[in-house]
Amino acid sequence: MALVNQRVDVPVIVDESKCLEKCTACIEVCPLDVLAKNPETGKAYMKYDECWFCLPCEKECPTNAITVQIPFLLR
Amino acid sequence: MTLSINTQRVQTDVLVIGGGTAGTMAGIKAKQANPEIDVLILEKANIRRSGAIAMGMDGVNTAVIPGHSTPERYTREVTIANDGILNQKAVLQTGKLGYETIQELERWGVQFQKNAQGNYDVKQVHRVGKYVLPMPEGKDLKTILTRQVKRHKVRVTNRVMATRVLVQDGRAIGAVGFDVRSGDFVVIQAKAVILCTGACGRLGLPASGYLYGTYENPTNAGDGYAIAYHAGAELTNIECFQVNPLIKDYNGPACAYVAGPFGAYTANAEGYRFINCDYWSGQMMLEVWKELNSGKGPIQLKMTHLDEDTIAEIESILWSNERPSRDRFHKGRGEDYRTHGIEMNISEIGLCSGHSASGVWVNENAETTVPGLYAAGDMASVPHNYMIGAFVYGRLAGEHGVQYLQGLEHREPDPEVLEAEKTRVYAPLTRPNGIPHTQVEYKLRRFVNDYLQPPKVTNKMEIGLRSFERYHETLDQMGARDPHELMRCMEVHFIRDCAEMAARASLYRRESRWGLYHYRVDYPDKNNEEWFCHVNLKKDGSGNMMLFKRPVEPYVVDVDLQTEVYDVASRS
Questions:
Q1: Contact at 8 Å (CB) between A41 and A35?
Q2: Which one of B346, B366, B398 terminates a domain?
Q3: Mean pLDDT, to the nearest integer, of B363-374?
Q4: Residue B485 resides in a domain
Q5: What DSSP string describes chain A?
Q6: Are residues A1 and B488, on separate chains, in Cβ contact within 8 Å?
Q7: What is the pLDDT of residue B1?
Q8: Chain A residues with beta carbon closer than 8 angstroms to that of B250
Q9: CA of A53, closest CA in chain B: separation in Å?
Q10: Which of B78, B209, B378, B536 is most solvent-facing, going by the fewest CB within 10 Å?
């Protein structure tokens, strides 16, 4: 199957200047398990576009590095 | 393509599948009943923030508080709201045991609203009685439950998704699943299995087109409905869909249960009331549907007439609980409760006994029709059970599961069954270039909208049913590149099973009942002569879905359904 790289506006925005390399708080609490660490930078990012905009990641981040937007299609 | 899959073997006494409202309580109650036994909660997310109440809840909706109501009056109210089709003994349990649940939650640190005299501040949202008890500080409910799970020494395995319950010699002997991060195949032997996987909230496609923009937590994909079905258990009332009046596009509650007692109400575009009760029922949804189709819509939750202090209090509750991102949705559209009604729409369909009645058949002890298999929460059919009902049935399942397993030994699962399931589950990983789950799921759920969304039309549902049957071929082309994608693929399998059940059950009941939930255009009237019964379904000996009538259990609380008709239309 042909692979297409499609740009998507994702709901979970991580401020990399605040994200701690050793912390996985947001990744552990996400009900849909959509967050992961970028192996090159050690920073969290939204790996899968499957967000319920439920906010545990944002609330449990110790450095307030995460902002959750309402997904574009609903916004 | 050959995959190298590691297998983990686990043994426990009581296996709880799903660590949400019902599952955490089931685990705790099993341990309270017998601290010596081993109890394991299997959760595909993390129990700290999983299930329908991942971000807490703003109140309990089925609280029978002495002095305000009685279990019998509550059972009466639900009997009438559910058009008489229910097992009253099961509903009565929620009425009887809910108060103890509230008291226990309070001891654990959950705060319920009290009036100046220190009494529970119960509100009326239902048609007759007062059953809604606000919980304005309910945002940490799940973390409180998680703490109790640890205190009671219940074992927890997060990030493992069950795919099937193992049944041997006519009883549940464990379950299989896989780790959604490592991809390990997980085989669990248990003496009793409790299914608590929540609603099928990803059945219809939201009007926004966003697959995960659902009312229910989208992790709740009907896992337990499909798992129970394949284990041979009976399911019931599947045709009594969940259809909700929700904030348009956002798809969360507006929420009249919170704002109604403060004076807010559901109105049409002209600002007039068209229903006299905001409690969610099929009859209410039919009035919403009529209003939207009358030219008087869109409809709205109206609170512009309330004073500043009241609106600020409503905001503080709605924006910290259940769906706390509501505020940023409203802000993004430049809308404010002071100046704007909240536009609402009819949701896509789902299956959920917490709100309506669809689920796995259980009796008043949370037993399914398969020995050793229990069900609780949104997936267990105890009509209108909500969160208190999930706690009560979690408790019943935990306590009865512990009694049941005395003297039972573990059984070694049949290796052929394990091998077949392993092959089935991991198939998408053998074709990483197969069709992505997102596209497969999108089309399946669009078909659900096209052919099953009420009003129900026989010809359309028959086309839908054929599409769902044929969809096995599509599932066989679905590909996954990692265990995470595999999880979503297997959820699409669950959704397909639920879609087929929804189509067959809806076609089988040739009448209309429960307002919009089962409004059939070609059988528009209620027909008590032929259809005052449950429609149950199960997998027969040759693997086919069979449907049959199951009589309504004799009532234990007198209700005269001839005179007591549930009618919520405003007649002005």
A1: no
A2: B346
A3: 98
A4: yes
A5: ----------SEEE-TTT--TT--HHHHH-TT--EEE-TTT--EEE-SS------HHHHH-TT--EEEPPPTTT-
A6: no
A7: 61
A8: 70, 74
A9: 7
A10: B209
Distance (Å) from the alpha carbon of B504 to chain A's nearest alpha carbon: 30
* CATH number of the domain within which B252 lies: 3.90.700.10
B487 in contact with chain A, both atoms CB, cutoff 8 A: yes
- Closest to B283 in 3D by CA, of B560, B513, B520, B521: B513
Mean pLDDT, chain B, integer? 96
- Nearest beta carbon to residue B209 from set A52, A56, A73: A73
Measured CA to CA in angstroms, residue B184 lies from A27, B6, B99, B176, B424 at distances of: 19, 5, 42, 11, 14
How confident is the model over B47-60, as a mean pLDDT? 92
Model pLDDT for residues A7-32, shown as the tens digit of each residue: 999 999 999 999 999 999 999 999 99
Domain count, chain B: 2
CA pair distance B406, B408, nearest whole angstrom: 6
Size of interface A-B (CB pairs under 8 A): 85
Rounded to an integer, what distance in angstroms lies between the CA atom of residue B275 and that of residue B268? 10
Residue type, B366: A
Token code pair at residue B59: 């109140």
Fold of A12-68: Alpha-Beta Plaits (3.30.70)
* Whole-prediction pTM: 0.97
| pLDDT given for residue B191 in this prediction | 98
CB-CB neighbors (< 8 A) of B55 in chain A: 54-56
B235-287: pLDDT as tens digits: 999 999 999 999 999 999 998 889 999 999 999 999 999 999 999 999 999 99
Q: Does position B564 have pLDDT exceeding 90, yes or no?
A: no
**Separation between Cα atoms, residue B50 and residue B44, nearest integer Å:** 9
- Out of B219, B250, B324, closest to residue A32 by CB: B219
CATH of the domain at B523: 1.20.58.100
**Cα-based distances in Å from A12 to B132, B478, B487, B503:** 34, 27, 21, 36
Say whether residue B57 is in contact with chain A using an 8 A CB cutoff. no
- The tens digit of pLDDT for each residue in B424-438 reads 999 999 999 999 999
Please check whether residue B218 lies inside any domain of the structure: no
Complex prediction ipTM = 0.97
Is it the case that residue B309 has pLDDT exceeding 90? yes
Mode of pairing for the β-strands spanning B133-134 and B171-179: unpaired
The pLDDT of residue B3 is 81
Q: Give the pLDDT of residue A2.
A: 65
Round to whole Å and give the CA distance between B173 and B187: 11
Tokens of A21: 């390399």
- Where are chain A's structural domains? 12-68
- Which pair of tokens denotes residue B318? 């709605």
| DSSP-derived secondary structure letter, B413 | P
Q: Show the domain range for B336.
A: 245-346
Per CB-CB distance under 8 Å, the chain A contacts of B329 are 70, 74-75
